[in-house]
Amino acid sequence: MVRGITGLLTAGLASVLSSMMPAHAETLGLVGPNARFEIDAETLAVSAAFHGGDLFQVTEATFGDGQMAEMSGSAGGYRWRLTAEAGTYQVVARLDGDALVVSITAHEAGELTWPRSPVGLAQSYALPVFGEGRLVEADNTLWAEFLSSRMGEMHGSELTVPVWTALGEDVSASYILETPLDAGLILANENGRLRVGARQTYTRFNLDEPYTVRIALGAADPVVGAKYYRAYLEGTDHFRTLAQKTADNPAIGKLAGAPHLYVHDKGPLKPGDIIDWKGFVQTFAARRDEAGAFSAMLWGAVPSDYRGEINGIIEEAAGPQGYVSGYGRVAMTRFINLVLPEVLAVSSVAPLPGGHDPAAQDAWIRAVRAKLTAEFPGMMADPPSWGDGLSTGLVEALQGAGIESAWIGTSDWREALWHPEAVEAAKNAGYLVGTYDSYASAHPEDLADSWQTAQQGQAIFDDAAYTNEDGSTVTGFAGRGAYVNPLRVAEYARIRMKAVSEAAGFNSYFIDVDATGLSYNDYSEDHPTGRALVMAELQDRIGYIANDLELVTGSEGGTALFGRDLVFGHGITTPPFGWMDGRLKRDRESAFYLGGYWPEEAPPIYFKQVPVPDEMAEFMYAPEYRLPLYQIALHDSIIATHHWEYGSLKPVGQRDRIGLTQILYMVPPLYHLHDSVMTRDLPVIEAYHKTWRPLHADLWDQQMTGFVFLSEDRLVQRTEFANGTRLTVNFDDRPRQLSTGETLPVRGIAVENTDGTRIIVMPAID
């Protein structure tokens, strides 16, 4: 058995490790407890073997013209200077247990493509792509073309786990990027065959800092590289377990058995909050021209393009036989929500740049309630129940469905401030409540098509933007504004997050983008910053939420570099993929169109259920290609789930697969809720919850210790956890027989633990 790669070499191995210089002086040898490596010091080609086996190449030559100089060696490894046409490098090679660790330092800007898996080694690759990971045959032309054309080169800072494995017939080589920030994973299509390697970019910010790669041999196990990376990660400051985090903040335990729910509002009211619609509209019509009346204030703020529609609703409600249609109720509610901030100004309490004043919202919503109930007496529901997203009614509905724990996130922190009783009801029910926030993009104050989180004040927009090496500004998300250097936003972000969380009474907080690892080298003359400092600030920003504000902290993505303080991440189980196929995001006539952002109170991009093109379904959802690389490394450190654009119920035809994957990997489902879809979606959520929750409540913080395909077609799969529990799932559309003789039905799950084995069946979702 191959021993762990993190053990240090013992003194007794020193004699074995002494210079192993075969025929050519440029070939360097290193011998570990179970494996040996040979390095061509002039080309950086590497060969390796287990003891007793033949050497085989694990890394191709990078240089054909290299010259070695200033060689020094010892029992601990070798150091030399390598000069080639591409540049001059200092190279250090050593062993850490049975792993080869190579560090390469450059003294001038440029690129280095190394290591690259040889053609003759890999029959398949375990790759950290699409969040969790995928197993891809090297000669699969469809995958080779797709990965090379859509991904090409993936920034190392954005890899969920910076490791890939080349799998041979009975052996593997795993490559860990210890310093991934300025590296990239290269996915190339060479004559229909997938080739994988890495490229380091040396810039003015990282010169004289080593680029370090760790290479280890292993069995032909697709998750062996993730196991090696987990062992390595435990020795860094980027890893803490959920148990350790929960000891610091017991509220994290509320995520056990908790689905993740995004709720949506676009104002204080929902149509159901008006209980006498005819009377409401008739009263509004009678008083809209009355000086000083609140109806007149509302009417005066109506944009001209709304007035015709409102007049139509008034005509509909007129007379003894009048009524207000469903569409009219939605339109009238939308209009009131739109104009309320204009007719009732917020009195400043603690204003912040960007036009924010969270502390002022409590007084404002109470004034809104008082004005509306006085203007329309007896026509409105009790104000604490208002709202079609976060509301006391939502909390009651969740409790009625047997959902004992949940993470509830608002898409706008004002949704919580409009419904303070709902926040308290949710917390009293044992739920975590937080909001979406972001500091990645900043917009100028005069940008018409803006959004709340990007409004950080003109000074930040003017002063904090990243600058490219050519002097241009790095354009912000969706082509608007600018992406900003987090160090320039650090003080403002902390002030605003504290103000928002305290005003709303949150016990959780979600920060967008940060844990994706998205970062840039900033070439600004005023604030030049390398990726390492940028990443440190993103890590510290998440740490501020977790440790200073003491909130259960989530972010988009959740790469391994954020394992110190991050508790949950959205976008690992299913990452964003609409950009890869124009039919999903741009073609509004396509059956696969994900939907837009209007109406704002329930955007179709979250609520519209659509099929996925067959090709995309194979890449994103086919179980025979999926690998839990992320879970093997981080299941007991970061709770991962889907990106909010690809919730558990979004993709028609894939929802059974998704439900089974959530059970196999022991990750939570993610849903979007709004008053308009509760009847459609809550029964499905409730039925699935009864199967999923008891398992997750036991396994949510357990290390995933193993994964295996149990059938040749890879449709029967098993995961294993540190407490000894094993979950076996049947993804096939027919029953399958296990080696124990038991039959696993369609959507069947075998649960093995100290109590024995039981078979459960997940309810159909598609």
Structure description:
With 766 residues, this protein is of the alpha+beta class. Helices cover 28% and strands 24% of the residues. The protein contains 21 helices and 36 strands. The strands form 8 sheets. A 9-stranded antiparallel beta sheet has the order 5-6-7-8-17-14-13-10-11, covered by helices on one side. Helix 7 packs across helix 8. The longest helix is centred in the last third of the chain and has 22 residues, at 678-699. It is globular. It starts with 13 loop residues before the first helix and ends in a 5-residue tail after the last strand. The model is unreliable at 1-24 (pLDDT under 50).
Radius of gyration: 29 Å
From the helix content, strand content and strand pairing, which structural class follows?
Answer: alpha+beta
Main sheet strand line-up: 5-6-7-8-17-14-13-10-11
What is the number of helices? 21
Q: How many extended strands?
A: 36
Share of helix among residues?
Answer: 25-40%
What is the global morphology?
globular
Residue fraction in strands:
15-25%
Mean pLDDT: 94
How would you characterize the largest beta sheet? Answer: 9 strands, antiparallel
Which residues sit in consecutive blocks of at least 5 with pLDDT less than 50? Answer: 1-24
Distance between the termini: 43 Å
Protein name: Lipoprotein
Pfam families: Glyco_hydro_129
Keywords: Lipoprotein, Signal
Organism: Aquisalinus flavus
